[in-house]
């Protein structure tokens, strides 16, 4: 294709697990011949960010870490690639004209940049589920107002999206999100009490960033995904089911009012979902592993245990209450996750902290604007911090 027909893409969080997979998919689908990479962004890993920017010929490379500007500038000297650092530069990278923006920053840090991209009118490929959990309808509305499409990247939501026929939305009865159950699927609470971050990050099926790996072990990731699904597909809470499926082959399902259930299957590799979001509504050929059913031989399912994995119960509470409870749950959990990884609190305390903050902030009125979301996020983080300090003292 000529310069003018190249698809303009930006990857927010290009140095992470989803970001590197996205660049791999872009490479497989024609690389610089088919895409113009507008911006790539990262935070700590400057060497990788610079290497990526050079490899794809990005126009702009930005690190969220303001103190790393000189380092990035140095690493890209002579390349002609523009360099930026810090919060404002990140927002500018997000808002630079691109047709398609991969939102793959981890955590609430991704909310403001992803919003900037949405408001400018890009199609948003959403890996950063925290955006939707925190800002819910406000985020969905921002994408719609910008004129872009919201394309799910989370494997479960991509599966639902793929199994959801537009003209049959009226007949959707439920969606069934599958969960691997993580490394502690069969563990008792007593056993889980002593796990370390190193144990929790070892996922049986998927290779992912640290936060989502820990979130898979505690099933907080599935809790976030339940709320993500509500907003993406405009569902009632009682239409959202979770089933534990240890092989991670069925990525999720849609149940229709005639009793039919449509599932999407594949090997656990995020590149399929990323490729779908990039090529939608078409599909592109990808060099990923194919399912071998004879080798698989069986698929297992079990009901999730909300006693051992209270995150799922908290998601139900947040869905029932609506309003800012998603933002509160997400922020409290993110603070607790950082404390757990730092060795300050135990594995089971993450859910306790989220629950305590959710209870304390249950009366907060629903968000009218994004400012309300950011205020609830900050307050929940602050309250979580106080509880973490108390628990640390008691330990
Ligand atoms: P990761 O930790 O591997 O990468 C995170 C990226 O965000 C990196 O590029 C990092 O530089 C950047 N980043 C970190 N802190 C930042 C900050 N404060 N400001 C700006 N940028 C910052 O994470 P990941 O596993 O790739 O996950 C990214 C998102 O995708 C998360 O929201 C996660 O839940 C979601 N997701 C991931 C997977 C997966 O398989 N990894 C699957 C589904 C959804
Ligand atoms: Mg997922």
From TrEMBL:
User: Any idea which positions bind NADPH?
Assistant: 15-18, 45, 128, 130, 209
What would you give as a GO molecular function for this chain, any one? 1-deoxy-D-xylulose-5-phosphate reductoisomerase activity
Which residues does the UniProt record annotate as the domain 1-deoxy-D-xylulose 5-phosphate reductoisomerase N-terminal?
9-136
Which Pfam families does this UniProt record tie to the protein? DXP_redisom_C, DXP_reductoisom, DXPR_C
State which pathway it belongs to: Isoprenoid biosynthesis; isopentenyl diphosphate biosynthesis via DXP pathway; isopentenyl diphosphate from 1-deoxy-D-xylulose 5-phosphate: step 1/6
Catalyses which reaction(s): 2-C-methyl-D-erythritol 4-phosphate + NADP(+) = 1-deoxy-D-xylulose 5-phosphate + NADPH + H(+)
Q: Does the keyword Magnesium apply?
A: yes
**InterPro entries per UniProt:** DXP_reductoisomerase (IPR003821), DXP_reductoisomerase_C (IPR013644), DXP_reductoisomerase_N (IPR013512), DXPR_C (IPR026877), DXPR_C_sf (IPR036169), NAD(P)-bd_dom_sf (IPR036291)
Indicate which residues the UniProt annotation says bind 1-deoxy-D-xylulose 5-phosphate. Answer: 129, 155-156, 180, 203, 216, 221-222, 225
Q: Residue limits of the 1-deoxy-D-xylulose 5-phosphate reductoisomerase C-terminal domain? A: 150-233
Q: Name one GO biological process term.
A: isopentenyl diphosphate biosynthetic process, methylerythritol 4-phosphate pathway involved in terpenoid biosynthetic process
Give the DXP reductoisomerase C-terminal domain ranges.
265-382
Functionally, this protein is described as follows: Catalyzes the NADPH-dependent rearrangement and reduction of 1-deoxy-D-xylulose-5-phosphate (DXP) to 2-C-methyl-D-erythritol 4-phosphate (MEP).
Concerning its family, UniProt says: Belongs to the DXR family.
* Identification of the protein by name: 1-deoxy-D-xylulose 5-phosphate reductoisomerase
The record lists the lineage as: Bacteria, Pseudomonadati, Pseudomonadota, Alphaproteobacteria, Hyphomicrobiales
